[in-house]
Amino acid sequence: MIDLFEFTQSGRCALPVGAAAPKSTRQVTIGWKHNHVRVGGGAPVVVQSMTNTATEEAIATAVQVKELALAGSELVRITVNTPAAAKEVPAIREQLDRMNIHVPLVGDFHYNGHKLLTDYPECAQALSKYRINPGNMGGGKRRDDNFAQMIDVACKYDKPVRIGVNWGSLDHELMAKMMDQNAQMAQPWEAQAVMREALVVSAISNAQRAEQLGLAGDKIILSCKVSHVQDLITVYQDLSARCDYPLHLGLTEAGMGSKGIVASTAALSVLLQQGIGDTIRISLTPEPGGDRRQEVVVAQEILQTMGLRAFTPMVVACPGCGRTSSTVFQELANDIQAYLRDQMPVWKNQYPGVETMNVAVMGCVVNGPGESRHADIGISLPGTGETPAAPVYVDGQRVVTLKGDTIAQEFQQIVLDYVQKRYAP
């Protein structure tokens, strides 16, 4: 049987049963200083996110970039929409470097990116990648000239680009042309099918033009963002079959809370299972006052639960039932999960492989002892009416039984001791 967490030296897990091999694509390297993030070409699927601060507020933006990077975002995109924002990009980069945060920054450009990159060369150099939306660059010759100007800057500073097509800002001239051609067919497609085809054609044709303008083929990543699950799956299946550029996956405007998480997971999991996708972002609408890092956590959990990568030790916990009127196991599972995630920025360097550890926090005797034995470390808490004792299992063996009011603290210490003993270099 294949071990889902048997890693190769590249960091990609052995493929889960039923998963297709990753599609062969070119590899794009996005770097800053010593940190080089590889996208495509067999590299592990990369997690990225985007700030929602005003970029002209350099300190606030740098702080949020740091938070996202420490949470595990391997690329962070920032909006560059005004001269004031472009002016502050070098300051943001400098502030991050002072904090020893070398995550590559991606500049998100719409409408005026050609002017900002040309007028503010320090901004162009401080960014590690440019995101270009061909549908937001004007029309006709003006669109072609603006696109060429951005590609020229990318060539000048040796920067990769993501050509990101979005159905909310699809090239109107291309769409109109394709709709006219479709109307003349003996058996016309439905309008939705024409739209999907236009997304794919726009992405590939703009990538080919970028290469004609001098940008190397291993400097281009493509994306075709839509907000409906089935459309996204169909578009990326088609896009993957027709090019070998690495692909960025994401359901645009996925929504808020559980809706956004479920929709993104449904779409991306199908594609990843088919070997499609080289980098992902979960575009969640944050709750008022919510934590921006949630989209990073969701992206990591999608990849880890599918067995494609490992980021933090996983906690298995039962859902609870009439046997578990106490909330102790719920609170302990939540505390342990948060504790493990909080430790990972330090542990990932000190304890290689700790991200593959499995912890079980169970609520009664039905599945508790069995699940605990299967985990690296497990605890089976007493259910309603059961003996007030919690047996702890380490590597399948019962090692201690905890009692009293300090079970949570004692179990956390057992977890820490296990990490230090098993994963120390």
Automatic annotation (TrEMBL):
Gene3D superfamilies: Dihydropteroate synthase-like, Sulfite Reductase Hemoprotein, domain 1
Keyword terms: 4Fe-4S, Iron, Iron-sulfur, Isoprene biosynthesis, Metal-binding, Oxidoreductase
Enzyme Commission code: 1.17.7.3
Cofactor(s) this protein requires: [4Fe-4S] cluster
Example of a GO biological process term: terpenoid biosynthetic process
Pathway: Isoprenoid biosynthesis; isopentenyl diphosphate biosynthesis via DXP pathway; isopentenyl diphosphate from 1-deoxy-D-xylulose 5-phosphate: step 5/6
Presence of keyword Iron: yes
GO MF annotations, alphabetized: 4 iron, 4 sulfur cluster binding; 4-hydroxy-3-methylbut-2-en-1-yl diphosphate synthase activity (ferredoxin); 4-hydroxy-3-methylbut-2-enyl-diphosphate synthase activity (flavodoxin); iron ion binding
Start and end residues of each IspG C-terminal domain: 315-415
Binding site for [4Fe-4S] cluster: 318, 321, 364, 371
Location of the IspG TIM-barrel domain: 25-299
Cofactor binding note of this UniProt entry: Binds 1 [4Fe-4S] cluster.
Catalytic activity: (2E)-4-hydroxy-3-methylbut-2-enyl diphosphate + oxidized [flavodoxin] + H2O + 2 H(+) = 2-C-methyl-D-erythritol 2,4-cyclic diphosphate + reduced [flavodoxin]
Function: Converts 2C-methyl-D-erythritol 2,4-cyclodiphosphate (ME-2,4cPP) into 1-hydroxy-2-methyl-2-(E)-butenyl 4-diphosphate.
Similarity remark: Belongs to the IspG family.
Name this polypeptide is given: 4-hydroxy-3-methylbut-2-en-1-yl diphosphate synthase (flavodoxin)
Organism field: Paenalcaligenes hominis
